[in-house]
Every structure is written in C-alpha cells, then in structure tokens.
Design brief:
Order of helices and strands: EHEHHEEEHHHEHEHHEH
Mean pLDDT: 89
Helix content: 40-55%
CATH class: Alpha Beta
Strand content: 15-25%
CATH architecture: 3-Layer(aba) Sandwich
Oligomer: single chain
Largest sheet: 5 strands, parallel
Number of helices: 10
Number of strands: 8
Number of domains: 1
Low-confidence stretches: none
Structural class: alpha/beta
CATH superfamily: P-loop containing nucleotide triphosphate hydrolases
Distance between the termini: 20 Å
Length: about 220
C-alpha cells in the first residue's frame, strides 16, 4: 500500500448512511472512493448470472477473482457500475442482491479474493473507504476510523425511501426484517465480523441530516 496516501475508513451496518457520507467526504476532499459493499454485491450478482449457487464456496471464489467491473459516473454525477460491460447499477442496489452480498461476504475465500483489489484503491492524494471491515481488517492502519450507525427503525425508513425514489415497490416491514437479519449475519460471521475498530470514532446519525454528519466527519479529518 502507498504509505503516502491516507485512508479514512467508514464502517457501519446496512442503511447507516455510510455510502452517502463517504461519497460526499471523498468529493469534498478530492480523494478516491472505495465502495467495498458494491464489490460483494457484484460477486453475488455475477454468481447469479453465471448460475453459481451461493453455497458453492469454491465457485464463488472463482467468480470473485474474475470480476470484470468498471465504476463510473453518469453526466449528472450519479453512479454507474458495469459488470462484464453491462450496466448493472440498478441490479446491484436491489434488496435481493444485498442479501446475496451478505451471504458471500461471510465466505473467507471470497473475502481473500477481494482483499488486494480493495487495497489497490489506496492511492494519492487519499482514499475514503466505506464498508463493514475497512477499519478493522482491510485498512487497519487508516488515519481515521469511523463507525457510523443509526437505529434499525431509522435505517429501514431511509432504505425504504431510497428504494421508493428509484421506483422500487418494497415493504417497510419486510425491509426492517431484512436489516435485522443482515445485522445478525454480518456481526456473527467468523471472518471480519461487523464491529467498530478499537480506535474508531462512533457516530450515531439517528435524527441528523446528511449535511450535519458530513460536517462532523470533515471536522474530524481537519484534526489529522
């Protein structure tokens, strides 16, 4: 890794807002951005397209090593993700793909296959990395580690609004159950479980605006 490129690691559970905050902080600083969750979602999606079952650990590791992915932006600045040349931006963000990502993320061989790919994002002038084990495992020497959280009820409401805004018909009650199930899987997995790093700053975003949380993070960055 490039020791001259500092890393800000933002970890947290599903729906905590870490992706949105990481994107805003990276843009404000002019740094690179790593959406590690998207990589696991892409493994799950690629496996589905290839007909590889989510209980085929060896097959999933092969899928992870062979990922042909391009992260890009549309003219309006919104994200665009291509898998094998195909635009899969919407597919990547569905709840079904998210559930698959939580399953494959618990597989050690998949995590190992993606580890170096994630660390390769650490380039000058710096990197903002969001995920579930950025500060505890992937970038354990990050200059700033943040564990972003919120109540499960608020996270479900945020996710519900996000999906509705994208035209997806989803049940708030179902989302709440899915978030609780995913929290349990992520925190109980044997490899790199979801938890704050010992030296992480805990930031509860419940009841706070995106702008307010972004300001707090940027204030912490200015202290480095």
């Amino acid at each position: 890794m490039n020791e001259l490129a500092p890393v800000i690691a933002i970890d947290g559970p599903s729906g905590s807002g870490k992706g949105t905050i990481a994107h805003r902080v990276a843009k404000a600083l002019g740094w690179h951005l790593l959406d590690s969750g998207a990589l696991y979602r892409l493994v799950a999606l690629s496996a589905e397209k290839a007909g590889v079952p989510l209980d085929d650990t060896a097959g999933l590791a092969v899928v992870a090593r062979a990922l042909d992915v391009q992260f890009d932006s549309n003219e309006d600045g919104s994200e665009r993700i291509r898998l094998d040349g195909e635009d899969v931006t919407l597919e990547v963000r569905t709840e079904q793909t998210g559930a698959g990502a939580s399953t494959v993320a618990a597989i050690p061989a998949v995590r190992e296959a993606l580890l170096q790919r994630q660390r390769a994002f650490q380039q000058a002038p710096g990197l903002v990395a969001d995920g579930r084990d950025m500060g505890t495992h992937v970038f354990a020497d990050a200059a700033l580690k943040i564990f972003l959280t919120a109540s499960s009820e608020e996270r479900a409401r945020r996710r519900h609004k996000q999906l509705k805004d994208k035209g997806m018909d989803v049940s708030l009650a179902a989302l709440s159950r899915d978030i609780e199930d995913r929290d349990r899987r992520d925190s109980e997995r044997s490899v790199a479980p979801l938890r704050p790093a010992q030296d992480a700053r805990i930031l509860d975003s419940s009841g706070q605006s995106i702008e307010a949380v972004t300001r707090i993070v940027l204030d912490w960055v200015s202290e480095l």
